Amino acid sequence: MKVLITGGAGYIGSTTAKALEAAGHEPVVLDSLLSGPAAFVRDRVFYKGDIADRALLSRIVAEHPDIECTIHMAARIVVPESVEKPYEYYRDNVAKSLELFDQLHALDKPRVLFSSSASVYASVEGFEVYEDSPLDPPSPYARTKQVMEMALADMAAASSLRAIMLRYFNPIGSDPDLDSGVYVRAPSHVLGQLVATARGEQEAFTITGTQHPTRDGTGIRDYIHVWDLARAHVAAVERFDSVLAEVGAPSTVINVGTGRSVTVRELVAGFEKVHGEPLPVREAPPRPGDSVGAFANVDKAHELLGWRAESNIDQAIESALKWSDRRAQVLGYE
User: What amino acid positions are annotated as catalytic residues?
Assistant: First the structure.
């Protein structure tokens, strides 16, 4: 099967492309390279451009008429930046995505697998969220994901477009062969900052938010190995039509996590165990747009996709540390 991946030069996109290849499929990558590095494209079929470029989309489909599904991952994703620059987030994550979806429909390429986010959920008692749990996205980034879920559901209801929306929880780690991983030099997410602290690239790791109503006051997360997340995309692509037939609807939402909760403080302890040394740790108030968090109920993913997370958090941490040793070589900088 041939699959178009927007944002396929990114961290999750490139890992998913590799998982598709391992399963016998052929990814076609569309990426602006605004953030994703060209090195992650490797030798795959690649188009550099914007997801809202209708002429480019038409050319891609003309040159690859056997594309059967589009995985839409291209997006801006940094929560604090979305608070500072909401226009850019709504323009790129919403307005351009609408152009993409409409053009895919016009080109008779109706299957869309959309990268959504667990950040759309409201805080709930016990922190376990189901696909029908209340929503209350706390940041412009998260709200762009909710808006696109609603838009996709409406477009699917009104046309031949079909959509599966995967709500990601917290991807960490690297692909099994260390060909790709987190690529930014100053990552904003927790594990990237832990690695940077361990490597001496920053003075200390800062826990942002220590007064949350959780078991130790820090945020609750569901950390999923990026390779498991990539495998979930493969399962969704392969079962796309049967999933929607099973739910009896033109679109559906599926949580993709481990089903286990980990606090930020517990992640730090786990990281120190794998790393073998304690880290300097500071505490600070929550960042703009931060949420208490949640962990996934993954029954629907298991039932519809036949998928479960297979890696544990120690394996993900270990792969992230190994990738940090290799990153400069892969990306070509010191």
Answer: 141
For 107-131, give one letter per residue: b (16+ CB within 10 A) or e.
Answer: bebbbbbbbbbbbbbebeeebebeb
- Dihedrals phi, psi of 31, to nearest 5 degrees: -155, 140
Q: Are 96 and 158 contained in the same domain?
A: yes
Cα–Cα nearest to 289, from 140, 165, 169, 125: 140
- pLDDT tens-place string over residues 178-210: 999 988 877 778 898 999 999 998 999 999 999
State whether 159 and 244 are in the same domain. yes
Is 209 in the same domain as 244?
Answer: no
Question: Which DSSP symbol is given to 10?
Answer: S
**How many Å apart are CA 146 and CA 143, to the nearest integer?**
5
- Dist CA 258 CA 312 (whole Å): 9
Residue 177 domain flag = no
**Domain hosting residue 291, numbered range:** 190-221+259-296+303-331
Say how far apart CA 177 and CA 305 lie, in whole Å.
25
Question: What angle, 0 to 180 degrees and rounded to 10, lies between the N-to-C axes of helices 190-198 and 264-275?
Answer: 40
